[in-house]
Specification:
alpha+beta; 6-stranded mixed β-sheet; 4-stranded antiparallel β-sheet; about 30% helix; disordered N terminus
């Protein structure tokens, strides 16, 4: 019986994937990427949006692929005056409070963090985390750093592979960006 319903489930999964770009969470994230890309271009940076390389249906995370490995790319590949970097952009309503430490934090997928660290090693280009914080209209930035710089959560409540969080105070305010 289970095997008989597999094609239906598979079709459902494929149709959900194709609507991914229509979901509010996706649109919100894309808007934040555009805010950061625009801010960077106004300051003389050239930007290659990695999301332009997201599979035939636009529903796959862009990856750097080797013979035996593949790593999810940060959102933007940026260059200026002979310097090249990667920028991972997160759009957040606000920082979250870690109750145990009473610290405001921003975080990303731990699995992606580890991929970005590998991208940094492979390309020799630094990776930066940009957070567009909607409530404060602030654009924050920090180098990706080391895993030991953040607070790692590897439980099952926050998505596959865990999360890494950094104190909001570890980010540099680079701009006020009205919505």
């Amino acid at each position: 019986m289970w095997m008989g319903s597999w094609p239906i489930l598979r079709g459902l999964a494929l149709s959900l994937g194709s609507d991914f770009r229509q979901q509010p969470k996706f649109k919100r994230g894309r808007e934040g990427e555009k805010v950061v890309a625009g801010w960077l271009m106004e300051r003389g940076w050239h930007v290659i949006p990695s999301y332009d390389y997201s599979g035939e249906d636009g529903d796959k995370a862009p990856k750097m692929t080797g013979k035996h490995t593949a790593f999810v790319l940060p959102d933007l590949d940026i260059a200026q005056n002979g310097k090249r970097m990667w920028a991972e952009v997160k759009t957040k309503a606000e920082a979250t409070l870690h109750r145990k430490t009473q610290t405001l934090e921003h975080g990303i997928s731990l699995r992606h963090f580890r991929d970005y660290k590998r991208i940094q090693v492979i390309t020799g280009c630094d990776v930066y985390i940009f957070v567009y914080e909607e409530c404060s209209e602030s654009l924050l930035m920090r180098p990706i750093g080391e895993e030991s710089d953040g607070r790692v959560y590897d439980g099952g409540k926050m998505g596959r592979g865990g999360m890494i969080f950094w104190p909001r105070s570890s980010f540099k305010l680079v701009a006020e960006v009205p919505a």
